[in-house]
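quick one, 157 residues, struct below
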Amino acid sequence: MPDTGKIEKVSIVISKGSLEGIYPGLIMANGARAEGMEANLFFTFFGLDAIHRQRHEHIKLATVGNPGLHLATWAGGLPGVSSVMTQYMSHRMEKLDIPSIPEFVEMIADTGAGLYACKASVDLFELSKDDFVDQVKDIITVGEFYDLAAGGQIIFT
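---
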């Protein structure tokens, strides 16, 4: 098969557990699937929160040390600022019809994308498959992730 230069497969690593750490990977995976590409998501470290049954509905915007918040950055460490900014961003995303993280995860899995938890992180945090949403296909090692990613692009968000 000739190389057309077109990306046919992406494997996306999600390692952060904040709104701005999770959404880029979900948006990229959704876009890949919409373009007919194979997509796999590998959740590691705090990115596991996006697929954790008890946490995926409570993801917040990181306000401390987030230069993208501009004027709000100086107040980021004050009590309640993270919650207020999270509500603000959630409202803005809702107006744009961007699904919540649980809805997005389900929607992406329904398109055939593979969702995987990192075994090293799962072991580190003493979790098990039962701690994750049903859409998670498996808990895999980094080596297994590389096998899935072979022949495609790896994107780290």
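The chain has a mean pLDDT of 89.
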